[in-house]
Amino acid sequence: MRSKDRLKALITLSPSIILIGIFVYGFIGNTFWISLTDWGGVAALAENPVKNYAGFANYVDLFTGFLGGSFRQDLVNAVYYSVFLLAGAIGIGLVLAILLDNKPRGEAFFRTVFLYPMSLSFIVSGTIWRWMLAPQGGVNLLPTFAGYEPLTFRWLSSNDAILEFNWQNLLPVFLQISAFILILAGFLTIRKNSRKGLLFLMLPGVVLGAAGWFGGELLPKALFMEEVHGFNTATFGIILATVWQYSGYTMALYLAGFTGISQDLRDAAMLDGATTAGYYRYIALPMVKPITISAVIILSHISLKMFDLIFAMTGPDNGQTGHPALNMYLTTFRANDFARGAAIAIILFFIAALFIIPYLVSSYKQRRTR
After folding, report:
1. What CATH architecture applies to the domain 23-170+229-369?
2. For the chain, give me the number of helices (H) and strands (E)?
């Protein structure tokens, strides 16, 4: 009987599996193949363009080549976009959810106001924020209402940068951090009387640490010129608009989680002497941990696809506020460098997979243990 049910399920799901295999994973595979060619240039739009295999040359050029400097800065911008979006949207959304969970007067009205930005498209909100952050108007004029001079900060076009670092030091630093994690994990494993920690964790950690140290001492001096990247202050406007738009979304997630907690549990905590802050810190927040993880995954994925908001606020040619998704569009459809654009797309795909795959694996394990 179970074999018949499995057969019926397979027959029912097979059309969807085939279509997903062709139009999702098939196209991902095709994009990866294109990224390994030299498809681009003047003849890229010919009826039968010539595509020669180039290996990983496009990837090497993006991360080390002179012309890939703009992509590397865009990649740094994407990291800051993700960090500030996660910190701002989750932090503000959590605070708003806690305030509304305590049933203030006008709760329905405020919930609607906080959720309203989610109903706008990125193009609409980007246009609105571009007007608000104009150098000669909008937010910069607010101090004049109190009798002060207007602000002169260029929210979307500033050339200043902070938190600058040498790109060539990233690989050694990454290796050293990985080595520290492996050595720490190996030490903890050995304390549990397991010799595997020494062989599979600590020894690779020592090797990575040595590679990171020698790489930091030799590679930048011998092979590379110093390449400085940092946090462009022109991205403040993009971050502000994104946090404003997605704070209501995380508020809705947390509010749904708080609503699902039994009122009896809250009443019991209050009877035992718990304060409101103590209730949320020790009871409510641990119980909505899956919601926090889901919000991190979703917002991280959204931050990797920030194209339309940046395009609407600053246009495609503002290098200070660039993003890999915007770079991919310009490289592919303006420069007709399809192989290089495909390489950027694959890089974004793997970065997104770093967030999504562990979440899916942990969710699958939780379902199996129930």
Report:
1. Orthogonal Bundle (1.10)
2. 17, 2
Report helix, strand and coil shares of the chain as percent, to nearest 5: 75, 5, 20
Q: What are phi and psi of 303, to 5 degrees?
A: -65, -25
Q: What is the pLDDT of residue 31?
A: 94
Q: Report d(CA 345, CA 217) in Å as an integer.
A: 32
Give burial (CB, 10 Å; 0-12/13-18/19+) of 297: middle
Give the up-direction half-sphere exposure of residue 218: CA atoms within 13 A in the CB hemisphere: 6
**Dihedral sign, CA of 265, 266, 267, 269?**
positive
pTM for the predicted model, two decimal places? 0.83
Q: Name the residue ranges covered by the structural domains of the chain.
A: 23-170+229-369
The token duo for 294 is: 């889901």
Distance CA 337, CA 99 (A): 50
C-alpha to C-alpha distances, 87 to 38, 80, 182, 325, nearest whole angstrom? 40, 10, 27, 21
User: Which of these, 230, 82, 232, lies nearest to 157 by C-alpha position?
Assistant: 232
Determine how many CB atoms are found less than 10 A away from the CB of residue 136.
Answer: 8
**How far apart (Å, rounded) are the C-alpha atoms in residues 31 and 344?**
10
Helix (H) or strand (E) holding 112: helix 107-115
Grouped pLDDT means (10 residues each) for the chain, 370 residues = 77 90 92 91 76 90 84 91 93 94 87 88 90 87 87 87 80 67 65 55 63 54 67 91 93 91 85 84 88 88 88 86 92 90 92 78 66
How many Å apart are CA 33 and CA 27, to the nearest integer?
A: 10
Both structure tokens of 306: 């920030």
Decide: helix, strand or coil at residue 162: strand
**Cα dihedral 138, 93, 320, 347 sign:** negative
